[in-house]
Design a protein that fits this description.
The protein is mainly beta. Helix content is 6%, strand content 32%. A five-stranded antiparallel sheet has the order 4-6-11-8-9, with no helix packed on it. A four-stranded antiparallel sheet has the order 3-13-7-10, with no helix packed on it. The N terminus is likely disordered.
Length: 279
């Protein structure tokens, strides 16, 4: 476990950085002012573990369909046992099959996966697969915003990779990914043999790290000082951190003459910053 420290941030440092940003920004002629609805200061504390399977038995799962035998359902895909998830949808390579899993540990950064062959019919093993991620609140197999993380259209045959002993054997694949996700969709598109009646897999592991997503270290009511009082009464500096679609406007920067901005002291105390957002 570790905390990634970027810099200790003092009010003076923060003021200098914000002023630097504003001095480089050309404001439109109609406003002659800084129009800033919200500034979010992102605190990034990443809790990182040795890369391992981010799923565990009991994590929420959604099968691509219910077209599975009773004893070979989707839960077997992440149970950590030599059991079998079988789905008839992919018979003769007609319809993709797989599952959606939501790791109960929260947001994760996945950079690898393993697949373990099931007990029989080597032609049912996956040949072409995709792994996608989503940060939607509740995506399903058929709905949601899904982003491709990894795709492989030529998974090596287990028979050739493990000659003479190819059942319940594991292949591992690594890939680049720098975006954490809350949900994952694993899909088998094609089978090793297109004459088979189903897809089967004993186990799928998603290899990665648990992360804590960045959050705003400021909150409405934190001590805040404007660069000047040169603002309309309803568009004062407090609007910059109120979490609402309101506006902070300051006339000092008219024609890019004088920098403007603010100093904020987060009420939670000393913080480590790694980013900011501006709306």
């Amino acid at each position: 476990m570790g905390i990634s420290v970027i810099a200790d941030v003092s009010p003076q440092f923060l003021r200098a950085q914000i002023n630097s940003i504003y001095m480089k920004t050309t404001l439109s002629a109609w406003s002659y002012a800084l129009a800033l609805c919200s500034l979010l200061l992102a605190l990034s504390i990443s809790t990182t573990y040795a890369q391992s399977d981010v799923t565990q038995p009991g994590d929420p799962l959604i099968a691509s369909s219910d077209n599975s035998p009773g004893s070979e359902g989707v839960a077997n895909a992440i149970d950590g046992q030599p059991t079998n998830y079988l789905n008839f949808d992919t018979a003769n390579n007609t319809t993709p099959s797989g599952f959606v899993v939501t790791p109960s540990v929260g947001a994760t950064l996945v950079t690898g996966l393993t697949m373990q062959s099931a007990n029989d019919a080597v032609g049912r093993d996956p040949l072409s697969i995709t792994l996608e991620g989503s940060n939607d609140e509740a995506p399903t197999w058929d709905t949601g915003n899904w982003e491709t993380i990894y795709e492989n259209a030529a998974i090596p045959s287990w028979v050739e990779t493990f000659p003479g002993d190819d059942r319940f054997q594991t292949q591992q694949f690594s890939f680049d990914n720098n975006k954490p996700f809350l949900h994952y969709r694993w899909t088998t598109i094609l089978l090793q043999e297109d004459t088979q009646n189903s897809m089967q897999i004993a186990e799928v592991e998603l290899l990665g790290d648990v992360v804590v997503l960045a959050t705003d270290v400021t909150q409405p009511g934190d001590a805040i000082q404007a660069s000047s009082d040169n603002s309309p009464g309803s568009e004062g500096v407090a609007n910059a951190i109120d979490g609402q679609p309101t506006k902070y406007l300051n006339f000092d920067t008219a024609n890019n003459t004088t920098p403007s901005g603010f100093v904020v002291t987060p009420g939670i105390g000393k913080t480590v910053l790694s980013g900011l957002t501006m709306q």
